[in-house]
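Weekly modeling sync, notes
Attendees: S.R. (lead), two postdocs, one rotation student

Agenda item 3: backlog of single-chain predictions. S.R. asked that every request posted to the team notebook include the full sequence so nobody has to chase files. The rotation student volunteered to paste the first one in as an example of the format we agreed on. Action items at the bottom.

Example entry:
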Amino acid sequence: MKLAIPIALALGLLAVSAWGQAPAVDFPADVEPILRQRCQGCHGETARSGGLRLDNPSAARKGGNSGIAIRPGDSAGSLLIRMLTRPEAEGGPMPLGAAPLSPGQIRKLRAWIDQGAEWPEASAGAGNDGPVTGHWAYRRPTRPRAPAVRDQGWTRNPIDSFVKARLETEGISPSPEADRDTLLRRISLDLTGLPPEFGQIGQSRDAETYAQSVERLLASPHYGEMQALHWLDQARFGESDGYQADYIRPFAWRWRHWVIEAFNRNLGFDRFTVEQMAGDLLPGASLEQRVATGFHRNALHNREGGFPIEMDRVERTVERTSAVATVWLGLTAGCARCHDHKFDPISQRDFYGLYAFFNTAVEVDIDAPMAGELEVYGQRRPEFERRRDELLARYRIPELQAYWERMILAAAEGTDATLEPIWKILWDLLLFELDGGTETVRTPVRARNSKQQDRLSAYFVKNVAGGYDFQAPPGYEALNFAELKEKFKELEASFPALTQAYAMASNPSPPPTRILVRGDYRRPGAPVSPATPEVLPALHTDAPDRLALGRWLVSRENPLTARVAVNRVWQQFFGSGLVSTPDDFGSRGASPSHPQLLDWLAVELMDSGWDLKALHRLIVTSATYRQSSDLRADLARLDPTNRLLARQSRLRLPAEVIRDSALAAAGSLDRRVGGPSVRPYLPEGATEIGFGNFVQWPQSVGADNFRRGLYIFRQRTLPYPQLETFDAPDTVQVACKRDQSTTPLQALALLNDPVFTEAAEHLATRAAREAGPAAEDRIRQLFRLCLARDPSAAEAGRLLEYYRAQRDIFARGATSASEGREGEAGNQAARRAWTAVSSVLLNLSEFLTRT
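Predicted structure, as returned to the notebook:
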């Protein structure tokens, strides 16, 4: 019999096991999370189309084409029990992809069904077709008491009590603690994204305690970089607009810089949230708080000619709404843009209630100078303005610009029917290409501020007079605008400019917010006011703006934000969250593997003042985190996905960290923190992927080529190939969890990409310098630099044999013409052989993996 297996049923059943509470025979409360969860069939079909549904008695007893889920008094005839005990030949027991329920739990389920399957009143009264409002994630978390465990000696903090209690229930023992070198490399990579430095391993392995190592890494400026890497994924951070034209955003890095500093100064997650949501609305908002709102500016921006301006504005507002719901609430609210959510209790009105908070905001570009920048700018600005004005006057730009402004404004307002179409085209181009440009043209010259006038003049020189086929009036034919454009660029490059930031501000004349029928911006429907989803606590305020929304997100009444945040932190350190669907806490998402631990951590985060460093410290000092990651035969059978946490997970390093680790081992990594993005080596022809000539990649020079992967420029239509090869997200949408693939292209990149071939050369040179001439010492040094441990005798022997074989090969290929004197030929062969040995180390699975 072919049976559609409902995904949510599996997850709901897992929740019964995960709570670690043995359900009573009458099943009054413990079964409620299952009974109130609507199940879906395979491939996204709802249970009503043939699968199981357990959210209320009527649905469960009615059944679908697969059978009746629960037959009161007949557990043997109930599909629920058959699926829980299904033999391997038929696909194995539910829930798929997770640990099966224990025999004791199944016996109690049988007993409950055989005794009549009495349902809780709350579930019995649920409608057949209504949304699931009793879902576990919508209930406010309370701090559960840490369970008692038989082996108290293993636990180091309350986290371990929850994990150990579950393991004891399943009859599984935890893994032993990893050795010290492994732990030092683990926490260094997890907390800073960098391998431990040589001075911290080898001979000095006993120099500091594990706790001291943790504190040192938490205080490192590189801590903020690693945490920012995770946050930028969720924030869909990109440095260009996206779409075909994909205009660059030269100052997008300024918001990234704020994120790094926020983590390094341990800004509480509540303030971290509020400032990104509405830093500009805080009383006496500082510059940095306004910069924080750049989170919302990461939305794509369509500047294609002819694309409706209002449609683009609506799309950006929709994207901001969906991003906030996913990042902070773990909800797929964007599914309710066109109609009520099919699976979660989020109506279309709920979606546009959230949308209304962002519909009243506008984008603004602000001056956001870095330390020391303003003083230099102030000193040199007068000279720049003098030379700029002379240049513009020489080419009669002020009068030409005034003429251009009059013509395009007349075309836009339709006051002169005799105008040629080119003027309307030039107006539309200004609208797309210069943010705030049309508003500046509509503002009288004397009423403009200097920044508005400067930006408009620069745009006119570079894009109109020096770019488009601008038809100047008679008398200006002899002017060489192409020459002017180049001179203007040279002048700008020779003087310092103030760093800017892309931020948000309140719109003094906000448009009304209406439900968009079928999500179509051309079909406004009923008006709607800013509001939070009805399934969640109400927003009690007389001023429902973005600031109120930010404070509501981190209020103790909100059941989702703290859970979502700690779940993603857990994912950083174990590879999978306690909820394995970090972007979906709704009914289609996974149930928690350890629900009580999830709630304990959520309350702990709030009680600590939303202190993320304290949470990270708590996790990495737990016995659960410190376990060995060695695979175990018993767990391969009982818990293949490690949901029970009887060992640590082996995690492939993020794409950026792989590159950083190679450069760090080679001693060539530039460790400067923060600042602008860089454009290191790009394979030839890569820019041709972009549309037209819009994608430019002026390669960085000097140390900038060796900065951390976090700082590589994120062009949306041209992902950096090495990072993309190792599964860096595409920056177009929120990414709460990175994919992890294994492909032949990855092996080829590690062998042939200039970053890794050059790193191997530098690594060989470093090992020779630090370890001396003895081959055995060099091999030991290479292991320490790459893997933070000493090699075994077998490993050292194999590499020594490989080195000698490679040296002989290179020596045979040397000639007097290419290698010089005989002694030099031998030295060259040895250097190449050590480079080959270094490449082997950089290509090891262990090097790419956090163990």
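Discussion: group reviewed the output briefly. Residues 1-51, 121-132 have pLDDT under 50 and may be disordered.
Action items: rotation student to repeat for the remaining queue; S.R. to check formatting next week.
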